Amino acid sequence: MNHRRLSRRRRSAMIAATALGWTGAATSHAATTATWVAPAFGVWTDSSKWSTSPIYPQNGSPSPSDHYDAVIAASGAAYNVAVNASAAGAGGFTVDSLTIASPDVQLSLSGGTFTAVSGINVASPSTIFFDAFSTTTLLRVASGALTLASGATITTRGVGGTISGNIVNNGTISCELATRTLNLNGGSILNNGTLRASGTGATLNLAGTSLTNHGTINADSLATVNIIGAATSNTWTSDGAITATNFGAINLGGTFTLPVAASSNTGGSINITGTLVNTPTSLVLNALTGSWGVSGSGRMVGGTLATSGGATLIGRGGTLDSVNNLGDVSVTTSGGIHLTGTWTNSGTISAANGLLDLASAGVNNGTIATSANAVVNLGALPTGSGTMNFTDSTVNITGTFTPAQLTNLPLHNSPLVLSGGTIDATGTTLTRACR
């Protein structure tokens, strides 16, 4: 290799990168800088496109001690660099770092695993596309971070893929087009820009070890954003915008606390699917935030719930644990809400054709009502000065009650069913029929 020629090209590449506001990613050991020499279409493995010709940048080639910092900074005409890392086998392509510092380039990932050991830097307005017809395409940072400048973009055109490692996003990372899936996992996510899913069935999974959102998270046009995904023990915070628009859905997983600022639901849905630690704060739903749901294994723990402006908390199978409800909680078809702990209701809790689970004896100073074939699991009777009405519902006895307690239940065309509970009729006569 002509090291004098390589040195000149290295200096030229870094001058170009610096002119675009980028200095490249630092590496932990000496590496050869491999630059894309001209603004022309090519594939990663075409060594003639690289300053290191006849070698393209691949750590361990031609000798195990060879390492590379790849820089794509050529400008002057629009071009595409195609990367199919599956061509290198199961290990894919590996470099020490990758810097994309050209306003004219698009990097196309079409398969396999691409690893930048110490980081990836993407300057504005460069774009990385996931173009593969398989979600197994992986863009990986082993240490350091994948950093997008303001105006830089990573998005999907193929089926999707995965970004693994720490992410600092000042630009846009999006899952676009119907049924695509983009996963962000394996490290911390710091969002100062936009994280978005758009298109019917498109899914963006934010499943890092942590998430800090100072920017915007958006689900639009029947797409879904899962915050933290299935990693329910992971934590996240947000003082940025979280928006669900045009029938998009955002699922708030993991463990989080308020404030979740500037959240809005405009024709979409926001659901608690993880754990909202609401102590000693208040979740306030209004015309700006829209209604939220609490779904599946989702839990709201402690604190106060307040609603106004037509907004409600919708029970979709989740749990209110020791929550002081001052607003409206509703359960609709196939949904459900579980009340546990030392709960208090001074608002309204209603279930129509869904499940109301009174698992513990709380305090009801408001209204609890069911109708339209709802199911009530009665584990304990609340105290307080409020009202309860079970109309056209099935009431399952799941706790222990005396006949007097059951006789005084406000049942209206609602049968009692002994379902794992106990009626302690010692010394009394049960006069109300149960089936």
**Apparent shape:** elongated
**Spans with pLDDT under 50 lasting ≥5 residues?**
1-28, 429-435
Based on helices, strands and strand pairing, what is the structural class?
mainly beta
| SS elements, strand count | 49
**Number of spatially distinct domains:** 3
Q: Care to describe what's here?
A:
The protein is mainly β and 435 residues long. The chain folds into three domains: 1-156, no CATH class; 166-184 and 194-269, no CATH class; 278-435. It has two helices and 49 strands. The strands form four sheets. It has a 32-stranded parallel sheet that branches. A ten-stranded parallel sheet has the order 2-4-7-10-13-16-19-22-25-28, with no helix packed on it. The termini are far apart.
